[in-house]
Amino acid sequence: MMEIKEKTDRVLHITDRNRQCLWGLLFATPFLLLGLGTIALTAKVITLECERDPSSQIECQRSVVGILGTERDRIPGKLKSATTVKTSGKGAVLRTTEGAIELAPYRAFVTDRVNKTVDRLNAFIKDPRQTKISIEQDDRWANSLWYINFLVGGLAVAIGALAIPLRMSCRFDRGSGDVTLDKKYLVYGDRQTKLPLSTIDRSQVGKLPFSIDRKSVYTIHLIPKDCKKISLSVPSQDRSQYQGIVDAIDEFICQH
Predict the structure, then answer these.
(1) Do residues 89 and 105 lie in contact, with contact meaning Cβ atoms separated by under 8 Å?
(2) How far apart (Å, rounded) are the C-alpha atoms in residues 179 and 170?
(3) Is it the case that residue 83 has pLDDT exceeding 60?
(4) Is residue 167 within 8 Å of 183, Cβ to Cβ?
(5) Nearest CA to 179 among 254, 249, 251, 255?
(6) Sign of CA dihedral 104, 107, 112, 115
(7) Cα-based distances in Å from 144 to 69, 130, 150, 164
(8) How many whole angstroms separate alpha carbon 135 and alpha carbon 140?
(9) pLDDT tens digit string along 55-79?
(10) What are φ and ψ of residue 227, in 5° steps?
């Protein structure tokens, strides 16, 4: 919370501590974990190998290769047909003597490549001259590109949180004639800005172009005479408190 630590005729010292950085990182963590987790679980390559025995019964083996390793299993029963099921991201579904088996043991985007896989399988089933078939379904790019949105969202929130200082101190000193602004960041370390007090024209409360819980968010800036404005605070919904800080700064500057 921003407060006036010291106020005399010669010194105005303002400090601020906040936890928005930590809250932002906590908020970003689920998005990052969800993105990484879903990519690890669904960005895989499936290989289905089917073979027709002398009695024209078809048995299939499946291998699933992903970030976490390779899984191999046998498709239960004898393969009878294949179909495409678009609902819930099921994709290719194998009809066997033991029931319906989904080719992908996870949810994926159902695209034209799934239809082509199903067509190849059905053509193999109907053609007794074919004894073997091997089909590959690569879901790495399709699923990664979709779930990477969670990663991008989480990273955006994390980077935004890291851009908010954990602690801030601004000291206006008539003795030295300087304004010293110190900011401490979680990752970026300590940053200091020093300007001559005579170059500061005023301060202002600015409204940010976003809201939190439908409430406006504000920040304080120093307005130098010959360069761009300098951020002096973290975002806050307490406009009245920030206005009090601005009034104190402008009063001190006017007395310079």
Answers:
(1) no
(2) 7
(3) yes
(4) yes
(5) 249
(6) positive
(7) 17, 35, 10, 30
(8) 16
(9) 889 999 999 887 777 889 999 999 9
(10) -150, 175
